[in-house]
Amino acid sequence: MNAKDRVSPWDAFQAANRFRRAIRKFKPKVIPEPEIYALLAEAAYAPSSGNMQPYELHWIRDPVLKARLAASCNGQKAAASAADFIVIVASPALGMRTAKAQLEHVERSSALGQDSKAYYRKQIGMFKKILGVGASSLWTPLVLLAALFRPTLSLVPVGHIGGRQWAARNAIFAAQTLMLGAAAKGIDTCPMEGFSAAQVAKLLNLPRGSVVPLVIALGYRADDARVEEQWRRATADIVVVH
Ligand SMILES: Cc1cc2nc3c(=O)[nH]c(=O)nc-3n(C[C@H](O)[C@H](O)[C@H](O)COP(=O)(O)O)c2cc1C
């Protein structure tokens, strides 16, 4: 292949980004297992705050569980015809688990210099405080009150709700990475927040404190799937240049 025939990374990215649509009707066609594993592995490369990766990606393979999950998605068409589901689960506790694992990795590493190790120790220590003492529900009324007077404080990862929102926010990057990866492989997705979170948590036996920001339906778009014109606000309306 000569240089002019090679697809540039930008062209490849744009093609995947434009291929990705919220698809609500899938063909009855199986997604090969290695394809799903590849997507899950790639999603793990998503960025996260302090690299705390406060999430799990639950791949629902069991047919009975799949049917129950579809039923928990409020009868949505995408869920009814999905070949596979990935449920995004997040919690501050998962972030804390990562903090401990990451610290062990840093201490063991022979590749990291002393300056890097000192930096990571400090950063991980800070997150351990936020995810430990900071996750206490005792902070929640204070955060709510503070956010009333200073709305920009609404997103601080403190208190039992703030911590869960922080975890969910971080998990979404992995979800989007997975969906773009799927698009690059010609696999369709539908991100869904229309589901009963309580039912999904029960189905997957999630520990208390877990939240489910998104369920992703995967499959190959049906020939008669409705794929309408992709409308977005004008770039000039979204972008504010300072
Ligand atoms: C957080 C989130 C939740 C969504 N929930 C649903 C849902 O429950 N059901 C659904 O059919 N689509 C859902 N969507 C898909 C959006 O409707 C879709 O992304 C949007 O209309 C833009 O269309 P496009 O993705 O094809 O560009 C959701 C998307 C996001 C990001």
Secondary-structure map:
Blueprint: H1 9-19, H2 33-43, E1 55-60, H3 63-72, H4 77-81, E2 84-90, H5 92-108, H6 114-131, H7 140-149, H8 159-184, E3 188-192, H9 197-203, E4 211-219, H10 235-238
Antiparallel strand pairs: 1-2, 2-4, 3-4
Flavin mononucleotide (FMN) binds at residues 21-22, 24, 76, 78, 190-194, 214, 230.
Describe the overall structure.
By secondary structure, the chain is of the alpha+beta class. The protein has one domain (23-221): NADH Oxidase (3-Layer(aba) Sandwich), CATH 3.40.109.10. Helix content is 49%, strand content 11%. The protein contains 10 helices and 4 strands. The chain has helices at residues 9-19, 33-43, 63-72, 77-81, 92-108, 114-131, 140-149, 159-184, 197-203, 235-238; strands at 55-60, 84-90, 188-192, 211-219. The chain has a 4-stranded antiparallel β-sheet with strand order 1-2-4-3, sandwiched between helices. Residues 21-22, 24, 76, 78, 190-194, 214, 230 line the site of flavin mononucleotide (FMN).
| Biggest sheet character | 4 strands, antiparallel
What is the C-alpha radius of gyration, as a whole number of Å? 20 Å
CATH class: Alpha Beta
The counted number of beta strands is 4
Our estimate of the beta-strand percent is 5-15%
